[in-house]
Write a structure and sequence with these properties.
The complex is a heterodimer. Chain A is mostly beta strands. In chain A, about 10% of the residues lie in helices and about 40% in strands. Chain B is of the alpha/beta class. Chain B contains nine helices and ten strands. A five-stranded parallel β-sheet of chain B has the order 5-4-3-10-9. In chain B, strands 6-7-8 form a three-stranded parallel β-sheet. Chain B has a two-stranded antiparallel ribbon with strand order 1-2. The chains are: A mainly beta, B alpha/beta. Chains A and B meet through β3 and β5 of A and β4 and α3 of B. β5 of chain A pairs antiparallel with β4 of chain B.
Chain lengths: ~70, ~280
């Protein structure tokens, strides 16, 4: 069983509280985000979509989630 | 019957002349030579309506952090189906090659292909590109398999370098982004077009339909714009105007314009005058 105590990560530049041992797929679900519309970087490394289910978010991780917005 | 047959044949020949060749970009072919941005619209519905009216098949988008706090927020791709449109992510807002490369890698991971609009800005006020950093970023991105469309100054040498690196197009600016000043240097554009082995797309600076037509008349392969449409009082009507202008300019270019002359040449016969 993964550590379930609360921990803090940096999510898109701001501190964000999550449960320890949370997987990326669960974080995206909690945020209500569809993998097909976004891309994720953890500590500056891109996480391929196939890896969302296995990737465990560790305390202090810098997580960036991006999507497309209007632009020229 | 024979007469009708000849007429049909002539009609077909004429259609072939009027019907344009398709526009090839990064191994894909497109009918529309207008590429539109998706920024500055009132909402996504207006974005979609303007894009539809423009007839564009390629649309640019920006790459930004998702809004964590506003979960119910709609996604741009819900309005612009990536199966219908070629999504062209840009690196707007990047001031270094590293930032632009990182942005392209993230954009590709979203899953809409490997075509990217590379822009590395060198100055906040003019938003002119940093040519050195753009070339540096293009080199890395091409090696990583990206199909790179770089926004660049109307500098023939910079365009040559980008072409040599393996960019799938070069996109010289007509004037500063969002300025609406039109084609400031048609002579440089003419040189760029003459040297180019890849499509030349005028990117930025178009203000109104005649600017888009002028770019196409010069022999550009396409025009990319955002503000000229989104910032118009009626963006949907302007989207239509731009579609027509790009088509008209292209057709005029292919038709071959007359030479400019200082003096008049009469259009009506000089003989048979009533006298």
């Amino acid at each position: 069983m993964a550590d379930s105590s609360a921990t803090t990560i940096m999510l898109n530049g701001d501190p964000y509280a999550i449960d320890g041992g949370v997987r990326l797929v669960a974080l995206l679900e909690r945020l209500g985000m569809r993998p097909g519309r976004l891309a994720v970087e953890i500590n500056r490394e891109i996480v391929p979509k196939a890896g969302y289910a296995e990737t465990v978010i560790k305390p202090g991780d810098h997580v960036e989630i991006i999507n497309f917005v209007g632009g020229g | 019957m024979k007469c009708a047959g000849i007429n049909l044949q002539e009609k077909n020949m004429q259609d072939t002349r009027i019907r344009d060749t398709s526009f090839e970009l990064g191994g894909k072919s497109f009918k529309s030579r207008l590429i539109v941005g998706t920024g500055k619209y009132k909402d996504f519905s207006q974005t979609r309506a303007a894009v539809e009216e423009s007839g564009a098949e390629i649309v640019t988008v920006a790459v930004r952090r998702v809004n964590i706090t506003d979960r119910g927020k709609e996604n741009l791709l819900d309005y612009l189906d990536p199966k219908r449109y070629q999504i062209l992510p840009n690196t707007a807002g990047c001031f270094t090659a590293e930032e632009a490369i990182r942005t392209c890698r993230l954009a590709r991971e979203v899953g809409v292909g490997d075509l990217v609009k590379l822009e590395v800005i060198g100055d906040r006020q003019t938003l002119f590109p940093d040519a050195t950093a753009t070339i540096e970023a293009a080199r890395v991105l091409v090696k990583e398999g990206f199909k790179v469309m770089p926004y660049i100054t109307d500098d023939p040498v910079a365009c040559l370098r980008l072409q040599e690196i393996g960019c799938v197009a070069v996109m010289p600016l007509a004037a500063p982004i969002g300025s609406g000043l039109g084609i400031r240097n048609p002579f440089n554009l003419a040189i760029i077009i003459e040297q180019a082995k890849v499509p030349v797309i005028v990117d930025a600076g178009v203000g109104t339909a005649s600017d888009a037509a002028e770019a196409m008349e010069l022999g550009c392969d396409g025009v990319l714009m955002n503000t000229a449409i989104a910032g118009a009082k009626d963006p949907i009507a302007m989207a239509r105007a731009m579609k027509l202008a790009v088509e008209a300019g292209r057709l005029a270019y292919r038709a071959g314009r007359i030479e400019r002359k200082l003096y008049a040449t009469a259009s009506s016969p000089l003989t048979g005058l009533i006298g």
